[in-house]
């Protein structure tokens, strides 16, 4: 079938048994692949939410119909129940692992059960082979990848966990292609709970394209669109994602010292511009990506990938740290040990405020750059105070009786945009199906960057509609599977045409959006079954009670209640955030 | 309510690529997109006129070539020669830059004759006059419009895209009011998304010069899915040339003129409503 390889394998690590999973053409059309198909298959397998670390909690590695085709199509999505949040979760990563998995002949690999000893999987020619990983257990992610590369053909791509995943740290990441991360939600911990150290994929199977001529036309159009767009054509290639530091700080939205300010006085010192003139060795790019937002950097003693915007914030402004080298080295440590940098930094910030407020004895001081990498190491290896940092901010703050100091939604830490400065972003955080995440609906695009339409960031008018729209489009892109940065350069219609050229299926904009809505609603249904309600579509009280005092978002508070009912109505959900029967019928759920 | 369909919007667009560093590949892509989406013209530099004309053969998409671009400060003879060559190469429309310095000096005969020389050299091709509004006061914009009409131009146009700022509704409104309904008004420069485009169309623009044409069409497609967001009340100052006045890029008298307008602006209070 054009676009898809027509093969998904489910492997039970407990028994070693593997079997193909049949997926109908109709199902592919309704869920595409990646996040959408992953959520659908996961929900079918787990009508009742399992314990995230139970053998019965499947872990899905998914590609999509566009994987391995056009620019930025090397990505893959990991779907499971998050140990950090308890929600359904999908985590996305770049690099080339997605393309390799597809070239190995698979649309998806479903891993369930738990191996009796550490193993890794080799995927090639449509088959899955289980290999012993006892010798790899304990290695960091880069050592692991290097060791597996020594045992597999050239051009093998490896996704693996480090010590954090092995130790089931709740926000452990899966790392692939050296430093690319499926970072959010603790998918690495789920992988570790299965004694699964890594997956290696290689192959040469090409994705069949329905209309080669239209496909070439689309590639040329995308080339021009990416080049023309100031974000994808200039800012991201030259300065990386950290180009946002100065922009967001100028809007008074750069969360500083655990969101107590929206202005960081040393922002210039941790900006993309500063990285370019101090640490940058070269630009790096994922599979077939002309943007190249990645930064390969070097400090006096180490080198590695990053930091990108969220990381430079999490280890920088959020902690009152402006030592760029220390930030980069904490980033390298997270990459090597396999940790989500956002939750790691945010949890450290929470601990610093707990200490400052007098409830936490452990000495955690704002601006303490010297201990940063050590905290990361201790967290991954579960030693000393790292055991508590490994809980994430929600559990940590609750443990010390100050739950309001955790800057999280549904247990996932909010990233680098203060919601008091952008009401749409606030609503998007609150209603995100996987918790405090900017990627479910990136309202920074219209509210700060003016794309595809410039919206007044302080207004709540029209925000429920556009948040739902952005969330649905994001679900489509995550299911296709492409990089979200392409959204700067291309709209929904271009996605429709791209899918048409590759799959031969005539997707309209309306049908694609209904796919996105179906995915979002299915995720919501799972979360409802897991006990999440309207009360969880919330933000920390700080955003409703404490005005920002300086910067261009000063005097602002989040006005969530003005938007939430309307958002539910737009979604076809009831007042408690549960999808209505009519909505389910309309979406065929 | 936005009562504009995708086809009608595409038919208002001059799909533009005027960067000094654009090569044949970019022009070929530009033409390919214009064919696919049905844009009215492709707007390009003179060196690519014939190339684009051949690429667009049989498509119905016209070629629009810029003349005296982007400064407008050359001689009338040179501009006329450029225009003649462009028309010979297949251009159906000519976008010429007015002699901005002469207009600011009030050397009105020179400005009129400069435009007329291009109109005469362009034969059957339609001529648009780029006023480069960022360098002009309102009074000078009105003069520029009147002289353009007197010299036989069929369109007036706001900007080159290389000046201090691009098109604003205030300027388009003033130009439309000056030239009346029989002459075209083209808004260009800084039009990045559908809302920018729609704002200018409502102000009276009958043609848009944009390079983000595909994104603008896609913005229109998205509008129907979240109309409330597209139609929210706007902060007037966000779309006012006075706010974008730039001392580094504008003559100091023009910069001061725009800033002075703020003091008497009725929207001053509205702005405060949003920001205080």
Write up this protein:
The complex is a heterodimer of chains A (589) and B (276). Chain A is an alpha+beta fold. Chain A folds into three domains: 8-201, Aldehyde ferredoxin oxidoreductase, N-terminal domain (Aldehyde Ferredoxin Oxidoreductase,  A, domain 1), CATH 3.60.9.10; 237-413, Aldehyde Ferredoxin Oxidoreductase Protein, subunit A, domain 2, CATH 1.10.569; 419-587, Aldehyde Ferredoxin Oxidoreductase Protein, subunit A, domain 3. Helix content of chain A is 40%, strand content 13%. Chain A has a six-stranded mixed sheet. In chain A, strand 10 (174-176) and strand 11 (180-182) form a beta hairpin. In chain A, helix 1 packs across helix 2 and helix 2 crosses helix 19. The longest helix of chain A has 21 residues, at 509-529. The radius of gyration of chain A is 22 Å and the shape is globular. The two termini of chain A are 25 Å apart. Chain B has helices spanning 6-10, 24-37, 49-55, 76-88, 100-104, 108-122, 138-150, 169-179, 194-203, 213-223, 227-230, 252-263, 268-275; strands spanning 13-17, 41-44, 62-67, 93-97, 126-130, 155-157, 184-188, 207-210. Chain B starts with 5 loop residues before the first helix and ends with a helix. In chain B, helix 4 packs parallel to helix 6 and helix 7 crosses helix 8. In chain B, helix 8 (169-179) links the parallel strand 6 and strand 7. The longest helix of chain B is centred in the middle third of the chain and has 15 residues, at 108-122. Chain B has two domains: 6-225, TIM Barrel (Alpha-Beta Barrel); 233-276, no CATH class. The mean pLDDT of chain B is 93. Chain B is α/β, with parallel strands linked by helices. An eight-stranded parallel β-barrel of chain B has the order 1-2-3-4-5-6-7-8, surrounded by seven helices. Chain B contains 13 helices and eight strands. Chains A and B meet through helix 7, helix 19 and helix 21 of A and helix 2, helix 9, helix 10 and helix 11 of B.
